[in-house]
Specification:
The structure holds 2 protein chains of 2 kinds. Chain A is mainly alpha-helical. Chain A is built from 8 helices and 2 strands, in the order ααααααββαα. Chain A has one domain. Chain A is elongated. Chain B has 2 domains: 29 residues; 116 residues, Nucleic acid-binding proteins (OB fold (Dihydrolipoamide Acetyltransferase, E2P)). Chain B contains 3 helices and 6 strands. The longest helix of chain B has 28 residues. Classes of the chains: A mainly alpha, B alpha+beta. The interface between A and B is large, with 45 and 50 residues.
Chain lengths: 252, 150
């Protein structure tokens, strides 16, 4: 079997599964997000200390969690790619990074909007904020590195290595509020227990589930898109390495 | 193609420099994001001209406004030491007595902290007003404890 043929058989199975469930996942995501927004913006009470401003949390926290989920997907996918060299997993990684940029950016912006009325500043050099901004830069760097390399195999390998190195930032983001002195409040759900009352917890959980489903939905769509582009490039000879392509161009 | 590649290459370099700056510049410096009042009172005079942050609890009934000005004074404590803060400006909405605050400014030889910037530090517990009034306490990290030296 030629590399292109084996690529197609492996991918077809995964793409079929993604295609079969993507609409259901998207529908469930919308359902949970609408329920979460209704609960969060209308049905839930204001917080005793922050008042109505606390409602920004229902958007900010799910986006931030999905940003970490996106990077975790990218990290695990990159490990798997280096092990099996499966091109569809590479497409999945590429898609997770692109979607991750979106979630990370929205988490930063909504965090900033929440920070102004509560902390009295849009931005401060707090360890949580800085490590999260680094996460955004790593993701943008990842996407750009991929655009920089022409050879598809080199591109996938270098990108996977970058993603694995960049993973070191993830525990730093997550535990920064526990390890260091921060303006950002510590974790609400931790070994200490849950410090969010049920009325405020419910919309937060609904939004978190909805946003995670939205992430999977976007990941499925984007993976397919990148796969189709990959396939098209393969047909046009894009899967050949640079010297092979030059040889082909010389021969034709 | 070549133009596009060099453009992307420059962008990658800029991003790497950005990450490096955040890690080795601002981030390292801000691993100590704020000092505590106990640390400030023993700070060497070298720090007098440097802008620093101090966090603590606003001591109850310590806030004194000067009428017809933007001047106010209050005490900030970490449970061991208390410092006097001289603030000029409008305090944020969530700045309250008995709550956490981070002040940015200068610790002077007159043993007063001069600040023009207050940030409110809130805790990680969230509940409706009725629950708070009913005296419910959720498990959270004590705000004072978050200020202790580890």
């Amino acid at each position: 079997m030629s590399p292109i043929e084996s690529l197609v058989t492996v991918m077809h199975k995964l793409i079929k599964i993604l295609r079969r469930f993507e609409e259901k996942i998207g529908f469930c995501a919308a359902l949970f997000i609408f329920a979460g927004l209704y609960m969060g913006l209308i049905a839930s009470p204001p917080d005793y200390y922050q008042g109505e401003v606390v409602r920004i949390m229902y958007v900010h926290v799910p986006f931030a969690k999905c940003a970490l989920l996106a990077y975790t997907t990218l990290f695990l996918g990159s490990l798997f790619y280096l092990w099996k060299k499966d091109p569809v997993v590479d497409n999945l990684c590429h898609a997770a990074a692109g979607v991750g940029v979106f979630f990370t950016l929205v988490a930063l912006v909504t965090g900033s909007i929440w920070a102004k009325p509560t902390w009295n500043t849009w931005w401060t050099w707090d360890p949580r904020l800085v490590s999260f901004a680094i996460l955004l830069l790593i993701l943008i760097g990842y996407v750009m590195l991929r655009a920089l390399i022409d050879d598809p195999r080199k591109e996938a390998t270098y990108a996977a290595v970058l993603a694995i190195i960049g993973f070191i930032d993830l525990p730093i983001v997550y535990f920064s509020v526990e390890w260091w002195r921060t303006l950002h409040q510590p974790m609400s759900i931790s070994v200490r227990g849950i410090s969010i009352s049920p009325e405020i917890r419910t919309p937060l959980i609904l939004m978190s589930i909805g946003m995670s489903l939205l992430f999977i939905y976007m990941l499925a769509i984007r993976t397919q898109m990148l796969y189709l582009r990959h396939l098209l490039e393969a047909k046009q000879g894009g899967l050949l390495s640079e010297p092979e392509r030059r040889l082909r161009d010389d021969l034709s | 193609m070549n133009k596009k590649r060099s453009g992307i290459f420059i962008s990658v370099v800029v991003i790497l420099l950005g990450i490096g700056y955040l890690i080795f510049g601002k981030f390292g410096e801000n691993l100590v994001y704020f000092f505590t009042p106990s640390e400030v009172v023993v700070l060497s005079p070298d720090y007098h001209k440097k802008k620093i942050r101090v966090a603590g609890m606003v001591v109850a009934e310590s806030v004194k406004m000067t009428p017809n000005t933007l001047q106010m004074r209050f005490s900030l404590t970490d449970g061991k030491e208390t410092i006097l803060v001289d603030y000029e400006g409008i305090p944020p909405d969530l700045f309250k007595e008995g709550q956490g605050a981070v002040v940015e400014g200068f610790w002077d030889a007159d043993r007063t902290f001069h600040s023009k910037m207050i940030m409110a530090k809130h805790s990680e517990d969230y509940m409706p007003i009725e629950m708070k009034e009913a005296g419910v306490v959720l498990p959270k990290k004590d705000l004072l404890k978050t200020l202790q030296v580890q």
